[in-house]
Each structure stands twice: as C-alpha cells, then as structure tokens.
C-alpha cells in the first residue's frame, strides 16, 4: 500500500504535473494521471523496488501519449482543438531542440512554416481516416515528432538546393564576365575558377 502522502506519491505527482504541462493540458488532470502512473508502475514492479525518476517519466509520457492520441481522434471539436494545441507546443519544442534548429532559425518564419506543414498533414490524415496515427496510441508523441522532423529535413534540403542553384547561377555570370575581360590570359582564368570554388565552399559552410 502506497501512502498518498509518502515520498513516492509526491514524486509521482510531481512527474504528473510536469507531464501534463508538456503534453496534455486540458486533457488529463494531475490526479488522474498520477493514479494511472501509480497503477501502471505497480503492475510491472518487483516487491520493495522503488521506481527511478526516469521510469516514472517514461510511464507518464506513454499515458499522456495515449490520451493525446484519443483526444486528437475525438469527434468532439473542443477536445480535438485542445489536442492540436498541445501537439503544436510539443512539436515546436521538438523542432527547437532538434539538430535542424540552428539552420531553421536562419530563415524567416521557417519554424512556423514547418509546424504549419506538419499540422496540416496530420489534420488531412485525420479527415481521411478517423483512426489515423500509430497502431499503438502510446507511441503517438514519437509518431508526431517523426513527422515534424521529416518536414524540417525536407525544408532544410530545399533551402540548401535553392541556395546552391542561386550560387551556381552567380558563378556562371561571374565566370562569363571574367572570361570576357581576361580572354587572352589563361592564368587569370585558372585563378578565377579557384576563387569561385573557395567562395562557394565558404558560403556553403556558413
């Protein structure tokens, strides 16, 4: 029997508060989530074993993920809107903590654009299929995170491609001008090509 005023219960409640703030505001209450965390831990723990903080967090995330997925699929507009609000905040945090964050911040409104594209994709998936999403709702957060990272990757690759195309066009223009001006000087032509490559490498490394 776990005392509701004991240290373990207080730790569980603390994890519940943090998890709801991160994934399930307006969808779960602290009391409900804390009780579910406790019951799930009790179903798997060994006698006298105390759960680690990381284990409690993982259990809470899985519970929140299931609840968020069910709310996202809900036919009730208010509940579904709350799910999208939580999802948007979670995906934005995921983007800002991803390896693409620094690159995205170099482009105006890039993070907003990626978020919009991802949420639009999820919304359209739900319209086509009311049971869209992962087979296991407990993996919904990871499933959605994978979607936003994929969109970030595509966005960054597209920006790099456009940048290279623009750079190549500028190089061709520069080369044509240089050849016109130094048509009789092969050495200057070689120097020009080397300079173009150095400039391109420097720009792409930014």
Uncertain segments are 164-169
Provide the β-strand percentage band.
under 5%
What best-fitting shape do the alpha-carbon axes yield?
Answer: globular
Give the overall pLDDT as a whole number. 84
Specify the helix fraction band. Answer: over 70%
Mind explaining what this structure looks like?
α2 (30-44) packs across α3 (53-73), α3 packs across α4 (77-96) and α4 (77-96) packs across α7. The chain is built from 8 helices and no strands. The protein has 206 residues and is mainly α. 23% of the residues are buried. Residues 164-169 have low confidence and may be disordered.
Give descriptors for this structure:
206 residues, mainly alpha, globular
Topology, element by element:
Layout: H1 7-23, H2 30-44, H3 53-73, H4 77-96, H5 101-104, H6 110-128, H7 140-181, H8 186-204
Helix pairs in contact: 1-2, 1-3, 2-3, 3-4, 4-6, 4-7, 6-7, 7-8
Summarize the structure.
This protein has 206 residues and is mostly helical. Helix content is 76%, strand content 0%.
């Amino acid at each position: 029997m776990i005392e509701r005023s004991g240290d373990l219960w207080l730790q569980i409640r603390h994890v519940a508060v943090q998890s709801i703030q991160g994934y399930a505001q307006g969808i779960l209450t602290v009391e409900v989530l804390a009780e579910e965390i406790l019951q799930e831990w009790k179903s798997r723990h060994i006698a006298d074993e105390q759960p680690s903080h990381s284990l409690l967090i993982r259990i809470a995330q899985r519970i929140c993920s299931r609840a968020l997925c069910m709310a996202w699929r809900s036919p009730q507009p208010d509940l579904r809107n709350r799910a999208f609000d939580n999802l948007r905040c979670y995906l934005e945090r995921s983007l800002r903590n991803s390896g693409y964050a620094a690159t995205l911040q170099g482009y105006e409104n890039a993070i907003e654009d990626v978020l919009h594209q991802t949420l639009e994709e999820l919304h359209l998936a739900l319209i086509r299929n009311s049971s869209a999403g992962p087979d296991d709702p407990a993996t919904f957060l990871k499933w959605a995170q994978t979607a936003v990272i994929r969109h970030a990757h595509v966005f960054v690759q597209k920006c790099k491609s456009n940048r290279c195309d623009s750079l190549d066009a500028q190089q061709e223009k520069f080369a044509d001008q240089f050849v016109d001006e130094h048509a009789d000087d092969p050495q200057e032509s070689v120097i020009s090509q080397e300079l173009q490559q150095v400039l391109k490498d420097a720009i792409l490394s930014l």
